[in-house]
């Protein structure tokens, strides 16, 4: 096959009907673990639900994988209802306020065995969102590791100092340099990721900015949060971050549908009210990773063991060299913002 721009090959490799990685390879959980899975997912769900400063009538999980985080959110809402003695969240009473819906969005049909409290909407994939996802009010929208798999233009600085698009042969991953960047991508690079040293790589974040802007435009009122691998202008990676995962391991990025392809997100170019590390965001929401006092082991052993488990889970989410190094971009849309 002839080489094509990385952005095109990347999109085909992940989302092509019947053969894309996310369609045919069993979902992300079959290949790697994210913070949305297992005990960390449950703790993350509770923290995310504490983020909005407004009533939440619907939670939307964009790039939901096979619904792992959405399930944790539904379970957390149900637990809150049980603790408060209400049925507000998932089982509305005849005279109570509207329930809180949980909606998961991804590129496959509804997974078998998904918690029935989670609604499912199929998405086209990449930057494209389903048309029914619009006019959202009193919403919490979570895009957990979505933008890093929105394919973007990959460029490299040539021997003359000009940024040129990187082409790739889909079957082998062999790369070559193509034409100079077109005007819009070049403008983005000069504004957000200037590079002049031959061999430097640039991952043009314009497609991610546009995908995020599209998602924001669908919210009439609420809070959106993108949680992702990312960087800011102070520390752009000179060699880029494009990589691949398969069967739980890093592998060579080849856009043939056999592996997940991902690149970190320029989080500070998104339309957001704040960008901070996950560690900072979760600490602000009360997570500390602090172990319970040892004396509790004698007076209430079960509570002590539960406290140790909670502390261990929180510590994983706060780890600067792990999940804590993710970044959150938070955007708040007030109803009076809508024109």
Structural class by sheet pairing and helices? alpha/beta
Strand content: 15-25%
* Strand and helix order: EHHHEHEEEEEEHEHEEEEEEEHHHE
Mean pLDDT: 91
Number of strands: 17
Tally of separate helices: 9
Explained architecture:
This protein is α/β, with parallel strands linked by helices and 339 residues long. Helices cover 28% and strands 23% of the residues. The protein has helices spanning 6-15, 21-24, 38-49, 68-84, 183-192, 206-217, 278-284, 296-299, 301-318, and strands at residues 4-5, 58-62, 101-106, 118-122, 139-144, 153-157, 163-168, 175-180, 201-204, 222-228, 230-231, 243-246, 249-251, 260-262, 265-266, 274-277, 327-333. The strands form four sheets. A seven-stranded mixed sheet has the order 4-3-2-5-10-17-16. The model has no long low-confidence stretch (mean pLDDT 91).
